[in-house]
Amino acid sequence: GSLYHDGDGSTLADYAPARVKELTEKMLSSQKALREGDKNAKLVINFEWKHTALLKAYEDAGVEWDVTGIDWYSDMEGAAGIDYITGVISDMFPEKTFMICECNIWAHNEYTEDEQADYMRSFADKVYGIARQNENFTGMIVYELLDELNYETDGYNGEAHFGLVGCFSSGKIGEVKKAYAALRDMWAGGEIAFRAERTK
Q1: pLDDT of the chain along its 200 residues, tens only?
Q2: I need a surface site. Which of 33, 84, 197, 200 has the fewest CB within 10 A?
Q3: How many whole angstroms separate alpha carbon 14 and alpha carbon 180?
């Protein structure tokens, strides 16, 4: 809450210096602990929208990571396209791989399954273009597989319905949604069976 002064996070002046120092120290401690626990672990730091200057501050302070992760939702498209931000990251950290760690439609406006499917299809198509042009791009994760109805408390919350597959408040898994079918057709080349399996 106290991290940002102003701006879009693309310059260090947009951040509160004391918070940058605090977070950098925590990142250095986390990196040290993770490396001591598993020297082969791949470390990912993710960010959203244009908030790239904090990553540069981390790097300048000696924080090391392997993969830069991008969280990207449909509301961000009005200010900058995903191709723009991946270009910025590639220029800032040319030796690091990067990926989409979270993506979906914007949660704070009510949306239909058709709107979610249309956005996810369009976004995935853009990501395919990025992957074709940049060998450092490693993948895309959709947030999320199942609905989380616990997010919907007193009123509509789109994040409760982000799932590619419906889920009831009882925990029972429901039907695949149109966004699931759209991505499945792009990624798997057509119809594949959806099976709900539980592991013991």
Answers
A1: 567 677 888 999 999 999 999 999 999 999 999 999 999 999 999 999 889 999 999 999 999 999 999 999 999 887 788 999 999 999 999 999 999 999 999 988 889 999 999 999 999 999 999 999 999 999 999 999 999 988 888 877 888 999 999 998 888 999 999 999 999 988 877 665 545 444 44
A2: 200
A3: 37
> Are the C-beta atoms of residues 73 and 105 closer than 8 Å to each other?
yes
List of residues 6+ apart from 193 with CB closer than 8 A: none
Smallest CA-to-CA distance from 49 within 90, 100, 97 is with 100
Structure token digits, residue 124:
């995935």
The whole-angstrom separation of Cα 184 and Cα 84 is 26
> Angle at the Cα of 28 (from 22 to 30), degrees rounded to 5?
100
Reference 143, options 186, 187, 197, 101; nearest CA is 101
Residue 65 identity: W
